[in-house]
Give the backbone structure.
Amino acid sequence: MNIAIVGTGYVGLVTGACFAELGLTVYCVDKNEEKIEQLKRGEMPIYEPGLDTLVCRNVEARRLHFFSSLPEVLPKVDVVFIAVGTPPTEDGSADLQAVLQVARTIGQNMSQYKLVVTKSTVPVGTCNEVKNTIAHELAKRKLASLPFDVASNPEFLKEGDAIADFMKPDRVVVGGETERAKKMMAQLYRPMLLSNFRVIFMDIASSEMTKYAANAKLATRISFMNSLAGLCELVGADITHVRKGMGSDSRIGSKFLYAGCGYGGSCFPKDVKALIQTANSNNYSLPILEAVERVNSDQKNILFRKFISFFCGNVVGRKVLVWGLAYKPGTDDMREAPSLVLIEQLLQAGCHVTVYDPVAMNEASKRLGNQVSYANDMYEGALGCDAVFHVTEWKEFRMPQREVLYRLMKTPLLIDGRNVFDRHDWPGFTVLQIGINA
């Protein structure tokens, strides 16, 4: 079975490389010709651990190919995965223009049966729109009887662990209407699930909803803990102890119970907004998710508020160093990152900002330009600085040389936005954390 993956972002490129690793012939398609040429040279447009090796190995084995033209690829494949972006519009709903353009292209060029699979995160009803779009284009070509199927196969890949998530998934969710489509999807995923076949088949609408529901649930846990953290600070409790007590309850579990400076990335913020908008468009409300979004938006201000409070508002001209720019470790993705909110506030307050991230410096330079200074390591920007902000919990930040920082800094203030450090291990420092009353 040959497949095409349309879109070479995090989802599309990882999906294509992993399917090729399993022995399939895969054609990755992207209208961005510069990106396609970059990939043909073995240069990765995104950072994902292990992806460059996987791509190069399968290109050399002639299982993985890159094209900028979907019509050129269509005759070669049996399955087309749509993995293009669905960015939020002004009202929070998902922008489906790219998805539907792929559907139009398929309808305008297919000449034999195809299984079209939405891999992009899309709202309920999108597969019906894709199906109607393809059928409309076929009818215009007087090929209304040409068979095809549309299926939903949402992704559950974590940036930084995407390859492992694909190869050893907790589950694979598939929404399909016909036995032919279900059989083809089962064939695709069986090699990685031989010992425990964890493909969950359901109707298409439920499959589309599952992706949003899962991300909304995780976002809710994060915002709930951040809300509790604020109360813990007021009453003298320690959110890290509360988390351990809660997480030991088997009904709750320990995952996604960490207080911090807010969630970011390409999924949680976008998907929460999209689910709220889906509800609104159906004259229904999701007040819990509306609160989740408000809490998270406000939580991204917490580090700056602690900084302002410590200096009693006197922050103009102060030098600060920001550790971590990506929204999470293991990626260079800065979409909706808490660091961006913090840096904007610091700049508006008249601070001199130096930033450092092990991976995201190129992405940061595109977004921040010459507004900030860029350090070559985690200590370079500490000289004469009044505060260090720990924003992204990269491993290299876990055991810093405290004595070096103390000698370099003007004011030994550490604002730990991820509660990684034990403040008792920092003699001479003021350590401000989330949900921990110092």
About this structure: The radius of gyration is 24 Å. The longest helix spans residues 204-235. The CA atoms of residues 233 and 437 lie 5 Å apart. The longest strand covers residues 2-6.
